[in-house]
Please model this.
Amino acid sequence: MKYYIIIISAILVALAVVVGFIIFLVARNRKKEPVEEQTAEKEGAVKNKAPEVKEQTAEPAAVVAVEEADGADEEGDEVREIKVIEEDGKTRYIVIKYSKSFEAKLIQSGEETKRYYSELKNCLLSYKGVKSRLSWKWETFRSGRKALAKLRLRGKTLSLALALDPAAYDGTKYHVDSLAETKSYAETPCLYRIKNDRRLKYAKELIDDVMRANALTAGLIAENADYAAQYPYETTEALIERKLIKVLTDEEAQSGTMFKPADIRKSVTVQEADSLIKDEVAELLVEKKGGVSDRTRTGIINIDTLSKNFEDGETVTLAEIKKRVSGFAKVTYLKVLARGTLDKKLTVEADSFSLQAVKMIVLTGGKAVKK
Model:
């Protein structure tokens, strides 16, 4: 009996060892499977995807320099627009630079913005002795010769500039901006943007602060005027006719690649180009030849490399790149990316462009031509 117990115990121990070893093998295989699958995927990618010839750095991140309206000047009253025209089966683009008056921007603003304007104007004019005057850039509210407030529009946002010290509102619910360094706002350096009804309420509280600081009292309560109704929507063409919008540039160009000489730059960086032209405009500025691209082997080249290897006025092609830049001998598909500075006028023919690269090319007077 004693021998039977020893034999059975030995068998159980052996079974336990075998089962443990099997569990160990299964666990190890489960851990290895994803790695092997990933490796196989990578190897497959290398086999199936043509190698790329790359330069050292990728494209810099886009830098947007304009706050509300792309293409706006410092005061926000100059904007660029692009129109698409079909003539004889060909697409032409008109790039126009406008200077819009405050009144024009108000006329073309949304109903909510007009409502904000009407309520703030009523609030300002409810104080004794306060009068308003409309100028090209803004509407100013004065008591005698002292400027108390200015209403302005930048893009779609109505803003209120007040004769208050911005520093006095640090850390408060009034998230104001300082315009103290801007000469034209020396009298009204405290800027508050009206983006919703809560901010409209706070703007009225700030107006009360201005009036108290200048010992001005509210007049008799009268029915508010509907100033919004005085500015029904009008088209740009109608406002140009009324001289409320000035056309600063009216230049037609095939495929939109030509700009006025004043707009052509001797050199441009990625950041400058990205702030000067909208992405949707850059898309329209690419000329298309309608050819077929061979994607067997992709080569990527940056703008600053083209600037270094080509002379002003030259046409950049893949064939010429192969002669002048090493590493492109077997490339069949060329992609152009933005990097550094472009200081040449170049016509660049490629299979693909980043939008920043297109902007740099056209801003220095060149053309981006896509197969």
Summary: The two ends are 92 Å apart (CA to CA).
